[in-house]
Amino acid sequence: MRRSLIYERFSLSWRNNSMAELVWKNKHHPDDQHKITAIPLLITHQQHHPQGESVDPLCTDQWRNRLILADRCDALLALQPEFSDSVNLIYIDPPFMTGRTFRSGREVAYKDTWHNNLDTYLQWLYETLILLYPLLAPDGSLYIHLDWRVTHYARVMLDDIFGGNAHADGAGFKNEIIWQYQSGGRPQKGYARKHDTILFYTKSEQYTFHGERISERRGTHRRNHMRKAIDEQGRISWTIRSAGRIYSYHEDTLMSPSDVWSDISHLHQKDPERTGYATQKPEALLERILLASSEENDLVLDCFCGSGVTPVVAERLGRRWIACDQSEMALRMTSERLLSSERKWPFSVQSLE
Ligand SMILES: C[S@@+](CC[C@H](N)C(=O)[O-])C[C@H]1O[C@@H](n2cnc3c(N)ncnc32)[C@H](O)[C@@H]1O
Fold first, then answer.
1. pLDDT of residue 221
2. pTM over 0.85, yes/no
3. How much distance in Å is there from the Cα of 51 to the middle of ligand 1?
4. Which of 78, 91, 227, 337 has an alpha carbon 20 to 30 Å from 72's alpha carbon atom?
């Protein structure tokens, strides 16, 4: 299959012309570059089966998770023929123009420098998002993890690709999640930047969402404006009068989660979860996203898997996964992490032909 066929099938025909469009120098649809090139093929180097599983080499129809060493565009193109409209949940934590080179010890894990050229970065991000969109199942969700440097650009781009409207109903934008943490220093001038932003988009108005699986206890929240009461059984309740009505609830009732997450801490230096990969995210963060936006056996994709947090959590929660990274160090760490954890399915390690 040729790349052009894929792009034709998934060109921006869904583009809603009433949306604002972000423009940068040399902006182009990736199709313009790749019209005549055949799509890349993935080859398998290794298969890792769960411990104790007997392997039938003739059995080719068994599901295999995939760990791919490749640039995200090549991998995403190679996945299109088999997986278009099939991925239930995408989580990506791409480089976000920090201007830094990330190392583990002396080894470079990856560079996030872009010659300080925002146009180059925006084109790169755009190509990634354009190739992710057609892989998403009609009821699928995408979460993209960014920070103050580029979130605003990504949001305009995603509104353009996913469509949607200003009221956030229907397809497109669902939430801007603020992941608040305490690590890092405090500047003298200006406010300390203590959060990342995770944008949540869906391909349609039908999508998987289980707030009840990640609900918070009301009791964990401070409320200065409410009156506290304790009943005969010792249960605490909180009451407020508003617009002539009385609202009251018990402290141990559950409520759906808000878009500010301040209960998941950054991995500190001595955290047992730490692999040594520079920008590793906590498993608790992925656990929340996977529980809310996917079902068991669903397919989860991360094309910037780094230390492997997404596939590791997907395994633990019984989700199938495809993970990719262009860094050999990332592949090594992810592979090691997976091999030392309990697994439900085999996984193949692949790269481009
Ligand atoms: C912020 S890190 C991801 C960290 C990961 N979420 C974790 O918790 O370990 C970004 C990753 O994107 C990878 N990356 C950068 N450019 C890439 C590209 N063009 N294709 C595939 N991976 C890329 C880097 O190697 C790096 O591992």
1. 63
2. yes
3. 28
4. 337
CA of 182 to the centre of ligand 1 (A): 23
Q: And the tokens for 48? A: 């890792």
**Which of 110, 127, 283, 337 best tests ligand 1's pocket when mutated (most atoms within 8 Å of CB)?**
110
What is the C-alpha to C-alpha distance for residues 330 and 43, in angstroms, rounded to an integer? 18
Segment 318-324 mean pLDDT: 98
Would you give the distance in Å from CA 23 to the centre of its chain?
A: 25
* Distance (Å, whole) CA 71 – CA 110: 12
Q: What Å distances lie between residue 327 and 105, 111, 208, 215, 251, CA to CA?
A: 15, 10, 32, 36, 47
Q: Which two tokens stand for residue 325?
A: 């990274």
Measured distance CA(160)–CA(162) in Å, rounded: 6
Q: Which atom of ligand 1 is nearest to the CA of 308?
A: 9
222, pLDDT greater than 70: no
Q: For 33-73, how does the pLDDT look when each residue is reduced to its tens digit (9 = 90+)?
A: 655 467 888 999 999 988 766 666 666 678 999 999 999 99
With the most atoms of ligand 1 within 8 angstroms of its CB, the residue from 73, 326, 329 to mutate is 326
Question: Cβ distance 288 to 215 under 8 Å?
Answer: no
Mean pLDDT of 288-315: 98
pLDDT band at residue 2 using 50, 70 and 90 as cut-offs: low
CATH number of 3-10+20-215+266-352, picked from 1.10.3860.10, 3.30.460.10, 3.30.70.270, 3.40.50.150: 3.40.50.150
- For the chain, the domains span 3-10+20-215+266-352, 221-255
